[in-house]
UniProtKB/TrEMBL annotation:
Gene3D superfamilies: PucR C-terminal helix-turn-helix domain. It comes from the Bacteria. It comes from Neobacillus thermocopriae. This is PucR family transcriptional regulator. The lineage of its organism: Bacteria, Bacillati, Bacillota, Bacilli, Bacillales. Signal peptide: none annotated. Residues 464-521 form the PucR C-terminal helix-turn-helix domain. Pfam families: HTH_30, PucR. Residues 11-130 form the Purine catabolism PurC-like domain.
Length: 538
């Protein structure tokens, strides 16, 4: 390891005013690092020490109390102090055996001055060394960052960055992209690799001073991790700073690679569009996947369509990064992803790589993750819909999933209760309504059942249609319906009586009730369609 200089107890003993100092305990702690010097003449130190301080004291606070002296040394050790320097003669003449025993047991150096020394000069001298050391560390770090940034302009692969940090630190470099194997720079025998990987996994729960890990984040996801390992010397603060800067540079490089790759995929549009249209044979599809390095583990697939609704043309951002987010999230949930981009519309081809049973749940999880990402919230604050077609078990039947995804999107935009996403298989009655609307005058059919209620509401603003919907949704429970509508039961009874007068006393009997529920869905569907037409006309 190309170690940065760190001030240690053994170095302190070579400084001014330590010529006649003597180490009387903790001889095995000479390599303890000193980060600051602190004068302690009080008995309460819990809020004074942060760790690795060299403590100077005359012992005035515990001069007549051996037990207190021992207790103070224990506290110094608990707070990870570097060592204790005591001036003898003024208040203390000897160091108790118990204190020496405690210090030796914990390898905690105790240094004595046998005559009066200027604590101020000692503090100034050591602090000047530490401050100069920090300046040098900052300078070296800045120099490393500048050289790394220059290299980022010319390097072609992330392996060049791994070699760069190895040259700077001369420690073992370990790198892994999400769901891929670990890479080692320099290369190691497999047995040594396995040993380091085992330590690496353990260190995520139990810190290891010879290992440090920096995650690589892209689009709010863990995209990989960079680690350094030093067998003999503990990882220093400087090493950690270099590791952090390098992880950031890796993230920038990987993002640039992903962006470039995504731009190349634009050329694939024509072929993919033909796939969605059902123009390719199964053999052609397999050849295409092999050519693009995709080893599909199953023939299960689905198509998702994302419809965007920007406020205006200028507010519409580059969708390349949106596609990067989708690809990253869906790949982590077990899918190979292809895209077809149109104006304000993205079509996602998902090839399943895991079990079919939880395929739908994984798609839901991925969509939820995308909705919650900061990138989507900031870059796409406007409304969008996602429509999922039916799942297919054959890659050359993908056009069927595509057609059902388009049907799902069309229905979704005509529903009054619009969610962010819908699956074709969950639309049930809406699919039936959509088909019937192509052959039957649903407006007339719905009016046959609901027109009396609609007209009464228009005339008296009685909210009977709203009450009818709630009453049916609550399966005829009056208490639940009243609670849902925030009305008293007497008001509900009055409305239900009006509904009986308009629809007939049998409106809750099985067959008529099913028909009315269906017509309520038809009414909502047609109302949304009419609203869309009005908006388009404007």
């Amino acid at each position: 390891m190309k170690e940065q200089f760190q001030l240690k107890i053994v170095d302190i003993l070579k400084r001014n005013h330590f010529e006649n100092a003597r180490v009387i305990a903790g001889h095995h702690g000479m390599e303890r690092i000193v980060k600051w010097v602190h004068v302690v003449e009080v008995t309460s130190i819990r809020n004074l020490l942060k760790g690795q301080e060299l403590i100077l004291s005359t012992g005035v606070a515990w001069k007549d109390n051996q037990d207190l002296f021992a207790s103070m040394v224990k506290e110094f050790i608990e707070h990870n102090a570097a060592g204790l320097c005591i001036e003898l003669g003024t208040y203390l003449s000897t160091i108790p055996d118990e204190v020496i025993h405690i210090a030796n047991e914990h390898q905690f150096p105790i240094i004595i001055f046998q005559h009066q020394v200027p604590f101020v000069e000692i503090t100034q001298d050591i602090h000047s060394v530490i401050i100069n050391q920090q300046y040098q560390k900052i300078s070296d770090l800045e120099n490393y960052s500048q050289r790394l940034n220059k290299r980022l302009l010319t390097i072609e692969t992330y392996e060049d960055i791994l070699q760069f940090i190895f040259s700077a630190l001369d420690v073992q470099i370990i790198f892994r992209l999400k769901n891929q194997a670990y890479e080692f720079v320099p290369e190691l025998p497999l047995q040594e690799q396995a040993s380091i990987i085992e330590q690496l996994e353990r260190s995520k729960k139990h810190p290891n001073h010879h290992l440090a890990i920096a995650p690589i984040h892209l689009f709010g996801q863990d995209y990989g991790e960079l680690a350094i390992y030093s067998k003999d010397i503990p990882i220093s603060e400087y090493d950690l700073l270099i590791l952090d800067r390098t992880a950031t540079a890796l993230a920038q490089h990987l993002l640039r690679e992903l962006y470039t790759e995504e731009k190349k995929r634009v050329n694939e549009f024509e072929w993919l569009h033909g796939w969605l249209a059902g123009e390719h044979t199964l053999e052609e599809i397999y050849d295409y996947l092999i050519e693009h390095g995709c080893k599909s583990k199953s023939n299960q697939a689905a198509v998702l369509i994302m419809k965007l609704f920007p406020v205006n043309e200028k507010s519409f951002p580059d969708v390349t990064y949106l596609k990067l987010v989708f690809r990253s999230v869906f790949e982590q949930n077990g899918f190979i992803v292809f895209f077809v981009e149109k104006r304000y519309e993205l079509t996602f081809i998902l090839l399943n790589q895991r079990g079919k049973k939880n395929m739908k749940e994984r798609i839901k999880k991925a969509i939820a993750s995308i909705e919650d990402s900061d990138f989507i919230r900031k870059q796409f604050p406007d409304k969008f819909f996602i429509a999922a077609g039916k799942f297919t078990d054959s890659l050359n039947d993908l056009h069927k999933s595509y057609q059902t995804a388009k049907e799902t999107l069309r229905i979704q935009q005509k529903m009054t209760n619009k969610q962010t996403y819908y699956f074709y298989e969950d639309l049930h009655l809406y699919r039936l309504i959509s088909q019937l609307s192509k052959q039957t005058d649903l407006q007339e059919l719905a009016a046959e059942y609901l027109q009396p209620v609609i007209q009464y509401d228009l005339k008296y603003n009685a909210k009977l249609l709203e009450t009818l919907k709630a009453y049916l949704e609550c399966n005829g429970s009056k208490q639940e319906t009243a609670n849902k509508l925030y009305i008293v039961r007497q008001t509900l009874y009055h409305r239900l009586q009006k509904l009986e007068n308009l629809l007939g006393a049998d409106f809750m009997e099985r067959e008529k009730r099913i028909a009315i529920e269906f017509m309520l869905l038809v009414h909502d569907y047609l109302a949304a369609s009419n609203l869309d037409r009005m908006n388009q006309a404007q």
